[in-house]
Amino acid sequence: MRSWFHRKNRLLCFAVLWLAATHATNLVSGAETDSTQAMDLLDDWPRQWIDERRSDTQRQPVYQRVPPGLIAPVPAVVLATTESQNQIQLQSFESSSGALQTVPPCVATILLPVGPPEPWWVDVEYLHWWIKGMKNTPPLVTTGDESPGQDGRIGASSTRVLFPTTSLFQTPGSGGRIRFGHWWNPEHSEGIDGDLWGLNGPHERFSISSSGVPLLARPFFDTSPSTPGQNAEVVANSARAGGVTVLAESDLYAAGIGWRWNLGVFRPARARPCRSVPATFCFLPRGDIRLDFTCGYRYARLDEQLSVLENVTVTGTGRFDVEDHFRTTNDFNGAEIGLHYMHHHCRWSFDLRPQLAFGNVHQRTQIKGGTVFTPTGSTPISETGGLLALEGTNIGTTTRDQFSILPQVDARLGYRLTDRLAFTVGYSFLYWMRVARPGEQIDFNVNSEFFPASNPFPTTPTGTGPRDPRPRNADAAFWAQGLNLGLEYRF
Asked: What is the mean pLDDT of residues 401-415?
């Protein structure tokens, strides 16, 4: 009876080993007799683009890197394929103590998600971007002949515009961006990703001073009932010396987070093999392609300001310091949808991400001005109002809300340096509809009757006539584009 029992156990063991070998052979070779049978070892496998010209064996996505959570202990043996003989053979993974070892990630053959296997990723990039210039900024500094009807006035035959000669913000700015993400499931079919970035600049500065030659002036169109027409405040001529400084700044920030779903995956069966691959280098060997859909929240902020600083010294009278400040902030909050196309092959990868955000932009315009007159040998006198920003007209803060869209496109090429680290270079383009910008909030129509009493303009303000300049509440389209350099790490 005992010998029969041992014979029965041996037969049962042989049967189990035969069934295991048969199943492993099918797994390694990828063969299947019925295309409707579930060969995937993972639940909720993402849908695939099926090419009817290829067999079921060809479109099975066999992956060579296994996430740690998907590596299972192997009972005493593991099956592997010998490339030289193309046949199945047994390899023992037992240690000297008899304990079983797990399958090395590059050796295990299992149906895995398309794309890099790590569940987390972080991408750090340097941004070198250009932004749209402010084309509608009026002339701020001019020069010309010192003669009646000239004095740097717009339209005069001798007048030349010194600033701005082109649209503001012609130079690029620098910034940084951090992207991050995580897959919720082993199949990498559902996850979350986000980004946080900022662009500091570009910043512009113009400064000029004169002791009398050349003449310097700040032009405007006078709407005063007594002196209507083109006019200018003289900063430097034969009777006075002075200078003008213009500062312009622009800062762009954005952040977003959203859910990510896989729409489809594809792994070419006839992709070219990788060349010169170290045995320890485990990555995507055949070319993986996937398309994901993203949906989430987007925030963006554009903060810009334009300041004009003027100083005039009149012999025997004193010094005048005049300031005009224009600042605009745009805060966008909205929903965002997009697609994410990824193609990985060996060390190389390509990403394309078109996105569209739509929501509300909150525009805030702040205008300030001031004049400080310091009489010769006396105490300074401060008044509200400058030249283009006057009390009782446009000084103050205005806000309004507008519907806006914010599409952007990112394209990136990556080269994997190690299993987890990759170098990336890319291009980004962003468009923003209905943005308030400071140069376009300047009203060139100014009523000199509202100038402060201590203003260097030779007039006696009465506060009569139209209340110019006025708040414009103007907006325009905005764009930013440029190059990106970064490092991506997956873990």
From this structure: 97
What is the residue type of 382? S
- pLDDT exceeds 50 at position 210: yes
**Confidence class for position 277, pLDDT limits 50, 70, 90:** low
**Shared domain check, 430 and 297:** yes
**Is the Cβ–Cβ distance between 108 and 66 less than 8 Å?**
yes
Three-state secondary structure of 19-56: HHHHHHHHHHHCCCCCCCCCCCCCCCCCCECCCCCCCC
Query: d(Cα 208, Cα 192) in Å, to the nearest integer?
Result: 52
State the average pLDDT over residues 217-233. 92
Among 111, 146, 162, where does a domain finish? 111
List residues bridging with 206 in a β-sheet. 246
What range defines the domain where residue 16 resides?
2-111
CA 101-102-105 angle, 5° bins: 140
**Same domain (yes/no): 280, 303:** yes
Range among 37-51, 93-107, 208-222, 323-337 rated most confident: 323-337
d(CA 298, CA 447): 43
Is-cis flag, bond preceding 164, omega within 30? Answer: yes
Kindly report, residue by residue over 162-181, the tens digit of the pLDDT: 999 888 898 999 999 999 99
The label of the residue with tokens 């680290």 reads 421
pLDDT in tens, 110-163: 345 677 888 999 999 999 999 999 888 999 999 999 888 788 999 999 999 999
Per DSSP, the three-state class of 193 is: strand
Task: Please tell me which residue, 292 or 347, carries the higher pLDDT value.
Answer: 292
Question: How many Å separate Cα 439 from the centre of its chain?
Answer: 24
Instruction: Kindly give the pairing relationship between strand 445-446 and strand 216-222.
Output: parallel
The tokens describing 18, both together, are 């035969």
Q: Count the residues in the chain.
A: 491
User: Which tokens hold the place of 61?
Assistant: 């996505």
- Beta strands in 211-283, from DSSP E residues, in sequence order: 216-222, 229-236, 240-266
Do 258 and 385 lie in one domain? The reply is yes
Distance CA(328)–CA(398), nearest Å, equals: 10
The model's pTM is: 0.76
Residues 86 and 222 in one domain: no
Residue 464 near residue 450 (C-beta atoms within 8 A): no
Answer whether residue 478 shows pLDDT above 90.
yes
| Cβ pair 342, 289 in contact under 8 A | yes
The closest of 243, 233, 385, 220 to 311, measured between CA atoms, is: 243
* Helix, strand, or coil (residue 15): helix
Element (H, E) at 402: strand 396-416
Q: How far apart are the first and last CA of the chain?
A: 57
What is the β-pairing status of strands 445-446 and 396-416? unpaired
Say whether pLDDT at 88 is over 70: no
Q: Are residues 206 and 254 in the same domain?
A: yes
Total domains present in the chain: 2
